[in-house]
Design brief:
The chain is of the alpha+beta class. The chain has helices at about 5-40, 65-85, 115-135, 135-150, and strands at about 45-60, 90-95, 105-110, 150-164. It has 2 domains: about 1-40; about 45-164, Alpha-Beta Plaits (2-Layer Sandwich). Helix 3 (about 115-135) crosses helix 4 (about 135-150). The longest helix is centred in the N-terminal third of the chain and has 38 residues, at about 5-40.
Length: about 160
């Protein structure tokens, strides 16, 4: 056998080896992709919408100002955002059992139909909000004034689930 024959055999072996690796890689990717939908399902519950809940501490003596701002500004904006289908619902809770002086007083929850809605809301909601306030500058001024009324204690995302 000449050198061309040995080289040819080595090339074939290398090609066969590469094909085997490619086949195994493809099978691994295929197996993983089939496992993902199974992983997403939970035997204990069905996954529902997503809540963004923000907890506020109202500064001393600012309760009336908070609720006035909520009634005149935030509620109409939330209603408009809901009417546009960006959120499914919103809820407001008050804390009846505070644990410390800076604990939250009011929580506001926005219900999003799915995770993707969280990514899409910022620009659209800002447009609706600016329209409510009359201008972007007026909207930003109102947000700054809100900081004098309340502090954000925390903001959490929660996935609503329906037990099976």
């Amino acid at each position: 056998m000449g050198p061309w024959s040995e080289t040819s055999l080595l090339n074939r072996k290398n090609q066969e080896e590469k094909m085997k690796r490619l086949l195994w890689a493809f099978l691994l990717v295929l197996a993983l992709s089939m496992a993902l939908p199974v992983r997403a399902q939970n035997p204990n519950y069905d996954v529902g919408p997503v809540w963004r809940v923000t907890y506020y501490h109202i500064k001393p003596g600012q309760g009336e100002a908070f609720w006035k701002d909520f009634r005149e500004n935030l509620k109409p904006v939330y209603d408009a955002v809901k009417a546009e289908g960006m959120i499914t619902d919103y809820k407001v809770w008050t804390n009846l059992t505070t644990d410390r002086p800076d604990d939250w007083d009011v929580a506001v929850g926005l219900l999003f139909p799915k995770w993707a809605a969280l990514d899409q809301i910022d620009a659209k909601a800002a447009t609706i909000s600016a329209k409510h306030y009359g201008s972007r500058d007026a909207m930003l001024d109102a947000a700054k004034k809100r900081n004098d009324i309340r502090d954000v204690v925390m903001s959490k995302l929660a996935h609503e689930v329906m037990p099976k």
